[in-house]
Write a structure and sequence with these properties.
There is one protein chain. This protein has about 400 residues and is α/β, with parallel strands linked by helices. It is built from 14 helices and 16 strands. Strands 3, 5, 6, 7, 8, 15 and 16 form a 7-stranded mixed sheet that branches. Strand 15, helix 14 and strand 16 form a beta-alpha-beta unit. Helix 3 packs across helix 4. The two termini are about 15 Å apart.
Amino acid sequence: MKAVTWQGRRKIEVTTVPDPQVIDPTDAVIEVTTTGLCGSDLHLYEVLGPFLEAGDILGHEPMGVVAEVGPGARDLKVGDRVVVPFNVSCGTCFMCERGLHSQCETTQVREHGSGASLFGYTKLYGQVPGGQAEYLRVPFADTLPIRVPEGPPDERFVYLSDVLPTAWQAVVYADVPPGGSIAVLGLGPIGDMCTRIAARRGAGQVIGVDLVPERLARAAGHGVQVFDLSEYGDQLVDAVRGVTGGRGPDAVIDAVGMEAHGSVGVRAAQTATGLLPDALAAALMKKAGVDCLGALYLAIDLVRRGGTVSISGVYGGAADPLPLLTMFDKQIQLRMGQANVRRWVDDLLPLLTDGDPLGVEGFATHHLPLEDAPRAYADFQKKRDSMVKVLFHPGDRPAGTFIRPDV
């Protein structure tokens, strides 16, 4: 099969790799029909290379049709249409039963002290082959895949893999009071969806901050009060306070993460670390790594006293300095973590099967064949071509041509 593989820093290739196969009795193999390119994938493209190996298959936002199931699968059937959450979670352990699927005790990567394994990510999260491919092995066939109905196009459901539950959790964690105010920093796919969900859940004032004109215009078109960071600069906090009663918003979502703009020194350090031999770079990042914290610092400054900062952007630094004096003095509540995808499915499915109130159809700005992945990664990182959300559609191999590896 064809798959998108990591070959080095800023080097993505579409290569031919062996088809996946059922390994455990409760596995399934799905034929991928649509798979997304996520902002988190860019961290692999640029910063987290020391935790990858050449040939690793990327991607964690797939959906498709079940091509094979193991003999231990009871409910999932060949031909079922499914979305695959990015957490590899069993659904039955202590953590999963409490809705903490990102902490699944069955797939925790204890070697690195990490939470649940993730599809298409680094050694820190299990190095599980990802979903930017024609086929994908999926463990826990009866409890992990999300079965979705036939009829609507893939774009109606594919965001259940990551975008929707990540944004939903970020807004829930933000705990905006009814009619209250929320600011979202970063209007990429997650941030954009956060603004839509916040409005849907009853926020009275939704503010978006970014510096890419197309993203600002896109959010403004959905009723978001937008602020261009490149225009306001150091005056942004005062400007946002000015429209929130002088206090700042009740909650702020940091949807940016470790590669925020404006942290030139840290960016240089990240780049230098990435040039070291992988073993040295990995050891340094696990003990002394730092993130570009511009967005997080802004969130802490921006939120009103007694408010909540919700972090959905990915961070990986082991030695990040935080302004604890300010956080303590402002009595800020801080919530964060990988989305517990399966936890939120029951909340989200009605919004996808009863109309399209969140505007998921048309949410993607680019629909591309898998072969265009190298260019898409480069364009997405550089924010070229008005790119906000990319969906790949594997298609060289006709549907239904999966051949069991043991045949």
